[in-house]
């Protein structure tokens, strides 16, 4: 049997198809589209567009639909796949982004013409043309208003899993309601990117899963339901505009007639989509405490799975297994790494050689905030160098990447209730062994890389498998779902060098001191 997982990330869309038959458990198809390169007509840079104010960051929901259409064409045309065997499809998407639909959306989804491409048929279905995405940092005012109405940052975090955060959906909705009340009135449904794409596949309104709903500042984390207090603090009649929250293994429907006719695909089950981070938890096989996943992508994230929320975590989400996911997010991830590489006209091999040459950067530290930062909260962007300047190429390369790893290590203590005994590294930059060596030395534990690069898409395929077996009356443990796909490859293990672990232990303290000195007096989001 075949299970399809799709991940709509900030910079592109990936599909992973897995085959599970007896002892056979393998990835049979893996393909990615890049928005800037493959869909240039949408004019994105890094998959997004900037608003008038640099803190406003958007993408077009039509572009995501277009990418989905093109990817299903690739799946249907892949010679190596017997598409009739696809039993279920699930997916994940960048978290927090929101799609504003009008009353034409649902009737349009039901009556799409299979001869025609998807994107042009959707243009009249939106109450707002642009979707704000997680990189948008323009809603500080709305965050404070929401927190004041709920009873403060701590009360908001206790209720929804996070303090009010600029990129979260609730503050974004409040800003839209305040600035464009007429368009808000025309909005009949607000989907997250995940539930929007699931709806397009099912041809009907799909529910939200608790994992992605916990990235909205609107869900009661303990009850997995919309919180009336949070809804009231955000915008009027918001409850009517949001999809229901259902179990993560909910079957939202069947692949609609549009896709069946357009690409001769079977009537596969559409399993609820989730956020990319919750999906990665399954795709990295993290179903026990003590393991830390570090995803090195557009954003860097570090996360754990626990049976109760970790007390110090700045974000607690629901995990697709029904447990809790504790997460910290760093906005300055791959874009900052790539910027510094290009600034000095280097290849990734050059970067690796510079990192290997002098771990610890001779004690020189950089606070790597090329853009505004989420952890810690930094509103004014700019690299902060201590003891060197921008002309020292090697110190800049090491300073930025070592700084990122020290920040992740220092803040990771907040997401785990027990000491971390191993790290699973994932995301595009995890293929760079020198970066993983820095990570291992900074943390002082083994770092494993998985064979599959896109853990969110793999997690989606595995969740499709889990939900399909459950619906067939043959429930599986999560261990047996992930087994064979997420076992760490010993050939990809990177171990710490004790000499450098001691060096970084001292540097990490200094880094934490400098960070405290330079961070904003705002809550950490
Ligand atoms: C997590 C976050 C990012 C996006 C990236 O809170 O904002 O990791 O999910 O896709």
Note the gap between the termini: 41 Å
Proportion of strand residues: 15-25%
Low-confidence stretches: none
Main sheet, how many strands, which sense, barrel? 7 strands, mixed
Protein structure class: alpha+beta
Q: Taking all residues together, what is the mean pLDDT?
A: 96
Name the descriptors.
525 residues, 7-stranded mixed beta sheet, single chain, 23 strands, binds D-xylulose
How would you explain this protein's 3D organization?
It is a single chain. The protein is of the alpha+beta class. 38% of the residues lie in helices and 20% in strands. It has 20 helices and 23 strands. Strands 1, 2, 3, 6, 12, 13 and 14 form a 7-stranded mixed β-sheet that branches. A 7-stranded mixed β-sheet has the order 17-18-16-15-21-22-23, with helices on both faces. Helix 5 packs across helix 7 (169-179), helix 5 packs across helix 11 (228-234) and helix 13 (276-283) packs across helix 18 (455-471). It is globular, with a radius of gyration of 22 Å. D-xylulose binds at residues 9-10, 94-96, 134, 167, 215, 275-277, 299, 301, 329.
């Amino acid at each position: 049997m075949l299970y399809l997982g799709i991940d709509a990330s900030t910079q592109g869309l990936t599909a992973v198809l897995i085959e599970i038959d007896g002892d056979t458990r393998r990835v049979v198809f893996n393909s990615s589209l890049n928005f800037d390169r493959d869909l240039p007509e949408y004019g994105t840079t890094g998959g997004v567009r900037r608003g008038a104010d640099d803190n406003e960051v958007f993408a077009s929901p039509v572009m995501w639909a277009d990418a989905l259409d093109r990817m299903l064409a690739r799946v249907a045309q892949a010679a190596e796949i017997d598409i009739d065997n696809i039993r279920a499809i699930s997916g994940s998407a960048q978290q927090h982004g929101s799609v504003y639909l009008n009353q034409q959306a649902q009737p349009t989804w039901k009556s799409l013409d299979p001869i025609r491409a998807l994107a042009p048929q959707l243009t009249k279905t939106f109450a707002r043309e642009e979707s704000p995405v997680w990189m948008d940092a323009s809603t500080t005012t709305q965050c404070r208003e929401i927190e004041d109405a709920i009873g403060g940052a701590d009360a908001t975090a206790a209720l929804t899993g996070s303090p009010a955060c600029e990129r979260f959906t609730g503050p974004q909705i409040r800003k839209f309601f305040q600035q464009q009340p007429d368009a808000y009135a025309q909005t009949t449904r607000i989907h997250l990117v995940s539930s929007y794409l699931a709806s397009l596949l099912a041809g009907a309104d799909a529910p939200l899963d608790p994992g992605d709903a916990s990235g909205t500042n609107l869900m009661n984390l303990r009850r997995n339901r919309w919180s009336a207090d949070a809804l009231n603090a955000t915008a009027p009649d918001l409850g009517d505009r949001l999809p229901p929250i259902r179990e993560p293994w909910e079957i939202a429907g069947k692949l609609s007639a549009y896709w069946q006719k357009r690409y001769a695909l079977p009537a596969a089950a559409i399993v609820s989509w989730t956020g990319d981070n919750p999906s990665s938890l399954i795709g990295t096989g993290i179903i026990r405490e003590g393991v830390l996943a570090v995803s090195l992508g557009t954003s860097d994230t570090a996360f754990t799975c626990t049976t109760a929320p970790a007390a110090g975590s700045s974000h607690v989400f629901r995990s697709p297994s029904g447990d809790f996911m504790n997460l910290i997010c760093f906005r300055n991830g791959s874009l900052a790494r790539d910027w510094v590489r290009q600034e000095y006209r280097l290849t990734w091999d050059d970067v690796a050689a510079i990192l290997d040459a002098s771990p610890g950067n001779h004690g020189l530290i950089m606070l790597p905030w090329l853009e505004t930062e989420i952890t810690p909260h930094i509103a004014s962007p700019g690299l902060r160098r201590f003891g060197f300047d921008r002309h020292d190429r090697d110190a800049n390369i090491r300073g930025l990447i070592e700084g990122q790893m020290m920040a992740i290590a220092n803040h990771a203590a907040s997401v785990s209730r027990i000491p971390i005994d191993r790290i699973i590294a994932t995301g595009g930059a995890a293929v760079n062994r020198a970066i993983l060596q820095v990570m291992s030395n900074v943390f002082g534990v083994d770092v494993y890389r998985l064979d599959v690069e896109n853990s969110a898409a793999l997690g989606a395929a595995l969740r499709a498998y889990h939900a399909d077996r459950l619906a067939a009356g043959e429930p599986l443990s999560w261990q047996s779902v992930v087994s064979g796909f997420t076992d760490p490859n010993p050939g990809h293990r990177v171990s710490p060098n004790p000499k450098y672990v001691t060096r970084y232990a001292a540097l990490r303290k200094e880094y934490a001191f400098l960070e405290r000195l330079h961070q904003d007096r705002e809550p950490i989001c």
